[in-house]
Each structure stands twice: as structure tokens, then as C-alpha cells.
Amino acid sequence: MSSKQKQSELAGTDAPDRQNNSKKIEQLEVAREDATGEALTTNTGTRIADNQNTLKAGERGPSLLEDFIMREKITHFDHERIPERVVHARGAAAHGYFQVYEPLSDLTKADFLNDPAKKTPVFVRFSTVQGPRGSADTVRDVRGFAVKLYTDEGNFDLVGNNMPVFFIQDAIKFPDFVHAVKPEPHNEIPTGQSAHDTFWDFVSLTPESAHMVLWTMSDRAIPVQYRAMQGFGVHTFRMINAEGKSVFVKFHWRPVSGVFSLVWDEAQKLAGKDPDFNRKNLWEDIENGDYPEWELGLQVIPEEDEHKFDFDLLDPTKLVPEELVPVKIVGKMTLNRNPDNYFAETEQAAFHIGHIVPGIDFSNDPLLQGRLFSYTDTQLLRLGGPNFNELPINRPVCPFHNNQRDALHRQTINKGRASYEPNSIDGGWPKETPPGPSGGGFESYPEAISATKIRKRSESFGDHFSQATLFWNSMSAPEKAHIIAAYSFELGKVDRMFIREREVNEILANIDMQLATEVAANIGVKPPSAPVKPDVKAADGKSPDAKAPDTKASVKQSPALSQMNLLAGNIKSRKVAILIAPGVKGADVDAMNAALKQEGAMAKLIAPSAAPVKTAEGNMLEPDGSMEGLPSIAFDAVFVPGDEAMLKAFEGNGVALHYLLEAYKHLKAIALCGKAADLADKLSLQPDEGLLKGADAGAVTKGFFAAIADHRVWAREEKAKAIPA
Ligand code: HDD
Fold first, then answer.
1. Beta strand 691-694 pairing with 602-607
2. What is the CATH code of the structural domain delimited by 466-564?
3. Which CATH architecture describes the domain 91-163+223-390?
4. Residue 538 pLDDT more than 80?
5. What confidence score (pLDDT) does residue 552 get?
6. How high is the pLDDT of residue 158?
7. Where are the domains of the chain?
8. Which fold has domain 569-720?
9. For position 490, what pLDDT does the model report?
10. What is the pTM of this model?
11. ipTM of the complex, rounded to two decimals
């Protein structure tokens, strides 16, 4: 039996719809190793007869150095760990493919963006930034969104985040920023959090971070699932078409599932009860055939418009409002296969902003330019030498040949006698490919530059607050309330009062006075009467202006920035808990299960314990989990079927009562059937459009699904505060 056959039988991962005829999957097949039915051997192939006992001098005697089997095994184990990523250490990834909708020949000659029939393999890794490899998924943080496209013209890595801007304008500040946000140096506290003095010290002294910090205090920093986040290339890039014409572009990934987030209490609880929440959902959805999808969007800016905005296109702390440049949707990415091995694929994946292909080029954004250095450098350390692109997950699917040779862990056996160029011994091979309209060698865009060598930031990078104000003004009332709560939580954990004061007076008051005043009141700082000019030199060498909010940005409000406007309008891929207990009305369970399935949502049966449950009709139901093991925070909504038996199941059961109370507190859709509807009164849950009651499943389905599609019952938020956390 071939290893491929064995593999598919074992894991079922080679189902036809997961294969997607991907060149990358076929390429990885060569490296896959399957031990099913095989003998246990040493690394050099000697079969092992006893894997339980060390070779010893006598049964009770000392171990012998001669034992090459024990030595090899333990030595390998001792060397298993490699350095984790210095940032974005915690992550999860999946394979899939990208397909462009229409040829983009007017914009770019990149081959993968010109052939709608072509499925370009991708490997996508999502991550948090601050925490180590073993930290929790649901912490408040930026999420990395790194896409490796294995195109026929080489790998193109779009190494972005789930937020469209960044904390700093110049890469030389990156080590300072990361040192400030990482755990403090004396005690390595806190893990996976920015709620500490060094972070707020740095950002309150760095006004250019104001916009991005506002994003990280928003609900964007606590996504429910990776598939519910947008992705952004952040920097302005260039595209070049076959005629050599260049345009500026911003890359966007739009989740087909819509954008939605956790509530803060939920995020904190999940960090303890299910630290793998995001990676598990990604894994399970793919295993269940419910493939996450994103559409690729482009904001295209003609070269001649470079200077037409009230911000600098090269400044990574600025976004291009969609009201000024709409997002053109150009293709779709589907993730349809989980890795076979976390270390070999996810951990060894080496992303690099500098991996580009003909038809795409960099801009002069100073953050992007610095990244071009950093990513190779970090892989050298992390993956142990310059051959990291030979690792199976990193190899391009197109041929690659050059005269680079040797070094640690070289895999290829380069034939030929000449490893230099020009050469006549090997006929001059491998040879350069002249640039061409298609299939040509890479050519940098011939941008004309006349400049003086200087260490100075452009004055056009000097406005740090207008877009932060734009973001704030674009939020709905609940989103604003969450931002105020997030700043209050974080700054409330800052010990030094002068840091709290500086953040309120010199940063928040320059964004919005309501924000500053409300946060000040929550953290014991005297509310400011007016914005204070930051008492620090900004990177352009001047002190940034204190400004009355709303004075500068040409766009005052951008609906596209509010998550409330980014829902998908359906319940596809949402997770619903169906509570069951002995005597439950099986007809309700079946009806709701079927209705959810039809809409592409996923239901799990949750019982007081993991033991099977007998329905009123006498059938046995196998629960997917217990109320303790799969709490309501793991779901988007809760359904309680009829009837009296369910009421009984809640009597005297604190875990069950808490299940509903917590779902209510977290503003989730709850549907109660038949007699189980009495639970609402018992728990003093006040009626609203997300709390449905009806005779049976059929009676509540419509309202229940509408509430799930809305994701949260925001109107309940004030009332829900009274529910103990
Ligand atoms: Fe970075 C990893 C995204 C600025 C240096 N970065 C890393 C990853 C993502 C980003 C998604 C994880 C890749 C993976 O999954 O393996 N980084 C960004 C974005 C930035 C950004 C969107 C700003 C727009 N990064 C940035 C700067 C520097 C770095 C300015 C250095 C000057 N980033 C790194 C790194 C990492 C990294 C240290 C750690 C692991 C790795 O590269 O492979 O080199």
C-alpha cells in the first residue's frame, strides 16, 4: 500500500475536494512520512528490537555508553526545540488556493493574477504578536495574517495583519516597540498582554502609534475566529503591468463569513478554558469541509495621484479611506487542508515581505524597507542557516536554480562543475532571464529618485491624530463603549500614574475629548479640559501638533471601518450549542439541527455530563460535550429544546444555569422551546430580539437565525452588565 493510500485511510485528508490539484500538495507528498505498518528503526535504518530498555551491564547494572540506540534517541530529543519567532510566535496555519476572478492585465503582469483558471496554492499562517508559542489564542492583540502564494513565477508572500495600519513609521523603531510590548525584562510579566507599564510608556511617548493603538483597543483585537477577520497588506505596494506602467496598491482580504469579534469577558475566559480556541476552530472547520474563504481586494492608486491625499501613501500609520479609493474585489482564497505536521509546516514556514514576483514591487515606505532586511535575518537564526527555502513548506513550486551553494542542512545535490557565473564549463547555465511582459526575469520598477542622503522623516508623516479621530468617529456606540472599556482596563493596570496621565492628556485628548474624559474618569486621572500638545519630539524632529479633533482629515467618517457594517448577513459557519438532558424533546433537537445544517451553521449537543441522553421519544443522543467542557463561550448561540425535562435539568444545577446566564451576558442569541421557556423568568432574563421563546423549534427558528446573523444583541448590553461575570 502506498504511503498516500495509507494516509488517506488514516486521516481522510485526501478527499477529492481537499486535493485541489495543488502543485504544492503534490510536492509535499514527497516529503511526507507515514510509519503505518513499518518497522521501528534508528535514523540509519537499523531495526530496533527493544525500545523499552537501555543496554546495561547486568539487569541491575549501570547503562552502557555503547547503546547507540538510546544515545541517538535521547540526543535527538535534546535538540528538538528551535527558537520561536521573536514576534508572532503563537500561530496556526492551513493550506488552500487562490483564484483570480478576471485577468488583471491592466494592473499587473503577475501571472497568478492574470489567469482565472489557475489555482495558485497558498499556505496561510495566523498569529498573535506578543505572546510566546504556548500562550492563549484569544488575548487582546493584533493578529498576523501571513499568506504564502506558491505562484508559477516564484513565491509571493503577503505578510500582513488583521489591522490596516501599524504602530511605528520606521523599521528602526521596531526593536523598541517590541521590547516595550513584550513581557517586562525583570520578571517576564505579563504574558500575551499589552496591559502593562512599558507598553503604555512607549506608546504614550510615541504619538505616531495613536492610530494603531486605537485599533488594538477596538474589538478587532479579539476576533471570534480567524475566518472572521479582515487581512491587510498594510503598506502601499506597487503593481506593474506588461507595458511597464506602475500603480500603487493596498491589499485587502475580506472574509466571506463577515467580521465579528468576541466580547472582552468572553476573550478572557476563553484564554483559560480553551487557550486553543482559534486554532481549534480553524482546524475543525477545515476537517468538517466548511472551508474558510476570503476575497482579495485592491485599492488602486494611479501614480499621478500619489500626492493628492492629506496623508502620505508611504506612511504605514495611515489607511486609504474607502470613500476616497474603493476596494476592487479581484479574487478568492479558500483554505481547505490542514497541515499534516505542525512543526514541519506551520513552525518551519518562513514568510518574508521580500518574496515577490514580477508584476509586484515595493514602495518606499520606511517600515516596509526595513522589513526587507529583518525577515531573512530572523530565519537564519530560527531555521539554522541560509537553506531555509529548501524546507518542503518553503520550496517554490516552480523550478529554482542558482549558484548559491553549501551551508548547513543543504538538501539539493547540485550537479555540474561550475558554481559561478559567467561560466563556460557548464555552458553558462543557469542563465539570466531578461525582463519581459510575461515570463520574464524580475525587474525593479525604474523609479526616478533624486535625493540627499539624510536621517530625517518626511514632514508629510507628521499628522498622527487625524486618522485616529476618523477611526473613532466611524465607530458605532457599542464599539466606542468597548474602546473606552479597553483603554480603561489596560491603563488601569499601569502602575505609574504619570504614564496614565500622559496617555490621557497627550494622546487620547488629541483623538477625541469624550474618549479621553471617559477613560480618565475610569482610571483616576483628572479629565483634561483641552488636548495637550505631546511633550515629546515626534520622529520628524518636531513636537506634533495638538489639534482640535476633526480639523484635518478630508474624510470625517468611514462606515467601512465599523465591524457592524461588515457582517455577512447569514449564519454560515456559526457555532450553536443545543442543550440536551434526559427526557429532552428529540423532535426539537432534530428540527433545529437540520435547520442549522441547511444554513451552513454547525451545532453541537451539550449535556450536563458526557453520558448519552435518552429523549422523550426514547432515542439515545450522544452528546458532543458536557456543559463544563464546552461552555457557552465556545459558541455563538444557545438553543434549549422542550420540554419540562429540560426545566428539571436546570434545577439546582449551577453549571447549567450559568450556561444560559453567561450566554445572555455575552449578548448571544438564545432560543427556548416549550416549557423550557420558563427558564427566562427563572433567571430574570428580560425579553429582547435575541431571546426567543416558542412552542417548538419551528416557532423560534426565524428569529433565532436573524439574531445569530446579527452576531450580538447590542440592545441588551446595558441590562447584561447586571449579570455577574
Ligand atoms: Fe513582522 C513576523 C506582520 C512589521 C519583523 N510579521 C511577522 C509575522 C507577521 C508580521 C504576520 C508572522 C509571520 C509568520 O506567520 O511566520 N510585521 C508584520 C506587519 C508589519 C510588521 C503587518 C507592519 C506593517 N515586522 C515588522 C517590522 C519588522 C518585523 C517593522 C522589523 C524591522 N516580523 C518581523 C520578524 C518576524 C516577523 C522579526 C518574526 C518571525 C518572522 O519574522 O519570521 O522578522
1. unpaired
2. 1.20.1370.20
3. Beta Barrel (2.40)
4. no
5. 65
6. 98
7. 91-163+223-390, 466-564, 569-720
8. Rossmann fold (3.40.50)
9. 98
10. 0.95
11. 0.98
Q: Which helix (H) or strand (E) holds 648?
A: helix 644-650
What DSSP string describes 343-356?
IIIIIT----TT--
Residues 20, 114, 161, 241: which is the catalytic one? 161
Give the model's pLDDT for residue 554. 82
Can you give the pLDDT at residue 48?
98
User: Distance between CA 607 and CA 611 in Å, rounded?
Assistant: 8
Half-sphere exposure of 466 (CA within 13 A, CB side): 21
Residue 9: the pLDDT is 41
Residue for cell digits 479597553?
Answer: 486
Which percentage of the chain shows pLDDT scores above 70?
95
pLDDT in tens, 225-263: 999 999 999 999 999 999 999 999 999 999 999 999 999
88 is catalytic: yes
Are 399 and 378 in contact by the 8 Å Cβ rule? The answer is no
Report which ligand 1 atom has the smallest distance to the Cα of 377: 44
Q: How far is the CA of 247 from the centre of ligand 1 (A)?
A: 25
How far does residue 131's CA lie from ligand 1's centre (Å)?
Answer: 14
C-alpha span between 117 and 496 (Å, rounded):
59
Question: Mutate which of 165, 208, 371, 380 to test ligand 1's pocket (most atoms within 8 Å of Cβ)?
Answer: 371
DSSP 534: -
161 part of the active site:
yes
Name the nearest CA neighbour of 239 among 250, 228, 224: 250
518553503: which residue's cell?
394
Q: Ligand 1 atom 42: the closest Cα is on which residue? A: 375
Q: Which residues have a Cβ under 8 Å from the Cβ of 703 and sit 6 or more positions away?
A: 671, 689, 692
Task: Give ligand 1 pocket residues (Cβ under 6 A).
Answer: 85-88, 91, 125, 127, 144, 146, 159-161, 166, 171, 174, 234-235, 316, 349, 351, 367, 370-371, 374-375, 378
The mean per-residue pLDDT over the stretch 408-431 comes to 96
| Distance, C-alpha 705 to centroid of its chain | 26
d(CA 260, CA 275): 19
Please give the grid coordinates belonging to residue 362: 515595493
The model's pLDDT over 13-39, given as tens digits with 9 standing for 90+, comes to 444 455 555 899 999 999 999 999 999
What local confidence, expressed as pLDDT, does residue 535 receive?
Answer: 79
